[in-house]
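Per-record layout

source: Denitromonas iodatirespirans
name: GTP-binding protein
length: 360
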Amino acid sequence: MTDPDRRIPVTVLTGFLGAGKTTVLNHVLRHPGAARTAVLINELGDVGVDHHLVEQVDETLVVLDGGCVCCSVQGDLVAALKRLFMQAFRKEIPPIDRVLLETTGLADPAPVVHTLMEEPFIADRYRCDGVVTAVDVTHAAGQLHEHREALRQAAMADRLLLTKCDLAAPDDIAALQATLATLNPGARQIPVTHGEVAIDDMFGGGLYTATGKLPEVAAWLGEAQVRAAAAATPAWRKPGKKAPAGPVTHHADGVESYVLRFEAPLPWWEFSDALNLILQAYSHRILRIKGVLDVRGDPLPRVIQCVQHSIYPAVSLPAWPDTPPFDDHCSRLVFIVRGLPSEEVVRTLHEFTGVAVSVQ
Ligand SMILES: Nc1nc2c(ncn2[C@@H]2O[C@H](COP(=O)(O)OP(=O)(O)OP(=O)(O)O)[C@@H](O)[C@H]2O)c(=O)[nH]1
């Protein structure tokens, strides 16, 4: 090892909702050079789906599902990194050469980087190896304009992965590249299709520094410090406490999420018609829909994903996860929306499928 800094590098993989983070993660983890990589996944919504889509499932996969890592689960992040370090130290798990942290699509990377740099136990043993931001070339132009989280993620990046290049026209990609170059001149832009990023483009960004980025980034880190200090979090966010029932608003800009549970197997075509109608009718209010479905006549769970108005081909998982809540084999859909009441969605889904739907 030529690196004199023996601390464990942590790569922060961020990017707006549905940008292709998990797809990149899976590709990277298949590379032999990524063996000994511990994976931390922070999930939004009350039912995590992402970690079931990650192919590496062992004791070095940690799910942080108590909220968004940038505002409520920094304590969980610290605890998870401490635990991983101690387990590896005691040889209870294989040695860890690096950590890959996938944030939620709405995370502000600044507090995450701040935690890595400032929390004493963590900063002594881990170093931020850079922020890699997945930018969906098919949606980024609008997202950068409409969502400050997307703007922050792009502006904070050490490297920008331009994902879904197979779905965009070269002129549109070039226009986006120009926008990103203005926004974050210091970040290298790497076009990516189906998550196929070279491992050297993913790792080895070096010690984290705000140099070369917009000056605002430093301000964001300052803001993060204030937020960390003001960790006077609501009582229900404290360890051991449960979030209140009903939809949880994650950020001040009115983005909220809810989970729908279906009481019986779904008729596929009727469900698809309902979903298409919802996407068409409410396209501007939907940020992300994803779920695991129990489809009538199919023994395997089917995963669906929508990013704004785009619906991606459904894929089957090899088996139902045997862990709660999926061990009941019920269909669940996670909606991340802005100003779209669950009642409207529930009514449409129920009318088309005839299946009872409850809001979790
Ligand atoms: N055609 C195409 N589809 C892609 C590409 N990258 C990702 N996708 C699809 O885009 C959808 C979202 O990808 P994910 O990797 O789950 O995105 P994510 O950023 O992890 O999503 P969240 O964690 O929910 O924010 C999935 O259906 C992927 O298969 C790509 O390069 N080309």
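summary: Residues 15, 17-23, 50, 105, 134, 163-164, 166-167, 193-195, 288, 290, 305, 312 surround guanosine-5'-triphosphate (CB under 6 Å). The CA atoms of residues 103 and 250 lie 14 Å apart.
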